[in-house]
Amino acid sequence: STTHFGFKEIPTDKKVEAVAQVFHSVAAKYDIMNDLMSGGVHRLWKRHTISQSGVRAGNKVLDIAGGTGDLTMQFSRIVGSTGEVVLADINDSMLKVGRNKLENRGIVGNVKYVQANAEALPFPDNTFDCITIAFGLRNVTDKSAALASMYRVLKPGGRLLVLEFSKPESELLSQVYDQYSFRLLPFMGKVIANDAESYRYLAESIRMHPDQETLKGMMEEVGFERTSYQNLTGGIVALHKGYKF
Ligand code: SAM
After folding, report:
1. In this structure, what DSSP letter does residue 236 have?
2. CB environment 110-144: b (16+ within 10 A), e (fewer)
3. For the chain, is the Cβ count within 10 Å smaller at the N or the C terminus?
4. Cα separation of 101 and 188, whole Å?
5. Which residues pair with 231 in a beta bridge?
6. Predicted pLDDT of residue 2
7. In the chain, which residues have pLDDT < 50?
8. What is the predicted pLDDT for the residue at 3?
């Protein structure tokens, strides 16, 4: 299918490779680009996610598609020495940058690093009190398989938080945002990281991602209960929550 601005959706068999290429390519500059492109606002979205997580000392947390570890870093402080945070990511370049960053900041002891695909998580059933996936789900090829896998490894009573780009609430915001993501983002990607292609993929993956209600429905289909979402920044981003009972 062709989307706005004539971009084509990447076929499934090519997508895995394309996503891997994008994140190998952006890993070293990922954090600085995040700050520049969101004007630092991604920090607020992440802080809000932490505040909604209900994570306490002693909990076991999985930060899937954890990348450079922003959420893992905060969770590590909260769960303390009796808890554990697993930062899982499919991409070893991103994992390496994340691990270096956290170790340099002295965040050691209760964090584990695991290379894993969200679609087939390599953990036993009923392992985690909380699972987060921030700006990761849209990169996953089979989102339902990934959600089912997260459901399986959550403990009963545990919760999933999905922080992801979503559908702006107003038509005006939607148009402004389209111009920003399809024109300015690739331009900034080119000028700052010499990589317009990766940032064009970013815009395209945002456009293709299921909207708020669709994602909520997908969570319910694999078993999540008491599902809800909050729009952040006018729906540019949404935080979905669901429980396993
Ligand atoms: N969570 C971090 C954050 O919010 O800054 C990183 C988000 S980054 C935009 C997306 C991450 O998803 C990348 O590190 C990428 O390697 C990872 N990823 C993509 N597909 C994945 C999959 N199928 N399973 C696990 N991680 C995946």
Report:
1. T
2. bbebeebbbbebebeeebbbbbbbbbbbbbbeebe
3. N
4. 24
5. 238
6. 40
7. 1-8
8. 45
Residues with CB under 6 A from ligand 1: 19, 23, 64-68, 70, 89-91, 94, 117-119, 134-136, 139-140
pLDDT of residue 11: 66
CA of 94 from ligand 1 middle (Å) equals 8
| Contact criterion met (CB below 8 Å) for 167 and 212 | yes
Which domains, ranges and CATH numbers included, belong to the chain?
Answer: 4-243 (3.40.50.150)
Cβ contact 134:210 at 8 Å? no
User: Which pair of tokens denotes residue 232?
Assistant: 């952040």
Q: What is the pLDDT of residue 87?
A: 98
Give distance in angstroms: CA of 136 to centre of ligand 1.
4
pLDDT in tens, 56-100: 999 999 999 999 999 999 999 999 999 999 999 999 999 999 999
Of 29, 34, 115, 139, which is best to mutate to test ligand 1, by the most ligand atoms within 8 angstroms of its C-beta? Answer: 139
d(CA 198, CA 55): 33
**What's the token pair of residue 144?**
């339902």
